[in-house]
Amino acid sequence: MARSSSTDRRYLELHGGKWRVTISIPRDLQRKLGTKLKHPLNTDSLAVANRLKWPVIARLKERIELERGGGLHASHIKQALVMSDSRRSAVSDVELVASDAAIIELADQILGPVVDEGTNAVTGQVEPVYNKDREKRAVEFAKVALGHATPMDRHHQQYLDQLTVKPRTRADDERAMKYLKAWCELEGVSPVLQSFTRKTAVRFMDGLSGVAQGLSPVTLNKYLRRLSRYWQWLEMRNEVEDNIWRGLTIAEPKTAYDEAERSFTDDEVRRLLQGEATQHMHDLMRIAALTGARIDPIVCLRVCDCADGVFIFKPQKKEKKERACPIHPDLAAIIERRVEGKEPEDALFPEWPAPRKKGSMRERSFKASSQFTDYRRKMGVDEVVSGKRRSLVNFHSFRRWFITKAEQADQPESIIAAVVGHKRQGMTLGRYSAGPLVDQARRCVEAVNLPCP
């Protein structure tokens, strides 16, 4: 049933006794436009306001569409993608002709009426002139719908959904696409797959530091690699002819020997283990020092991962499966205290729970890492080099310290690699505490001892 003009308040609100139009801004545009667009109607009559509001609503919605540009969220691009899929599914020439006719008809609707006349500078003939913004959207619609242009991020969500990487790496993929779009807007390059050639990719590589200001070549190369993986995925699906990013890298400055991240010294380990920190921080540091494990697998340990005399650490980096590491005798009391009264699936470190926000890209260990950094600096364990983003000593220095101490204790390199999860050929430790390899790994772990007070 149609609403009466005397009761219909859609898109309307009273302000100072007068009616005005108000339209909510989609969340992705609120940084640009705020939360709402408003326009006064200068009337206190609801019936009059309902007669005046529709042209205003159309203009405000058009402004929102213009702010969106040609991205996937723009309504004309969404519609074009639907028409493109329909066209690609045509099974006969008759269906294809009908699909193309529908596309042209919709493009004409987007184009809108003639607003003026002009003379063609080449032919001298009089030609109709259309609203430039509407004309731009109509051309974008037609190109996408007819399959002549594919938004470069059209398949990006599908690509992200099939990735089996850590949330932080997935965030790198999203950031790389964001920088690519920003560069396209800055350089006037149409953000479609058909615009990108090897030369275009090189131009982007050369201009990336200007778009992503303040980032090191190492970080910029990470984004180039993520784009390369996406294009490789597109190539396998015949969406592009070639991976134009293959082999593109920005020159990275060589790191001087005295600027490389390093192991803790025994004195630094001693200071960290004797300082005033929380009990869970002390437990975390000792497990790191006597296993060589990274921070996130330690923080993510469950009670069931600390049974039968071994830790079971989740896969990290390029590890394909979980990894076993014998529990050092000096850690036995810590583990016994932490598992007491808990269920097998309970966290060993409940002090650092997983992020509450759904879809968070942060690892569970994010807060633990931040707290350790603050504590390390408070204890004066730091080495900052001008031009480098982080200290040459960090939580990973426990891992380097463990490896160094195992090497100094004449432990075989292959066994050290198995214990800490470095890439190696041949045997890997099993889940259960049995067999000669686990015995060797246990001897390796027990050869490392914390420095005396």
Automatic annotation (TrEMBL):
Domain Tyr recombinase residue range list: 259-446
InterPro entries: CB, DNA_brk_join_enz, DUF6538, Integrase-like_cat_sf, Integrase_catalytic, Integrase_recombinase_N, Tyrosine_recombinase_XerCD
Pfam families documented for this protein: DUF6538, Phage_integrase
Alphabetically ordered keywords of this record: DNA integration, DNA recombination, DNA-binding
GO biological process: DNA integration; DNA recombination
UniProt domain Core-binding (CB): residue ranges: 150-235
GO molecular function annotation: DNA binding
Alphabetized Gene3D superfamilies for the sequence: 1.10.150.130, Intergrase catalytic core
Domain of life from the UniProt record: Bacteria
Family: Belongs to the 'phage' integrase family.
Alphabetized PANTHER family for the sequence: INTEGRASE_RECOMBINASE PROTEIN MJ0367-RELATED, PHAGE INTEGRASE-RELATED
Name of protein: Site-specific recombinase XerD
Source species of the chain: Breoghania corrubedonensis
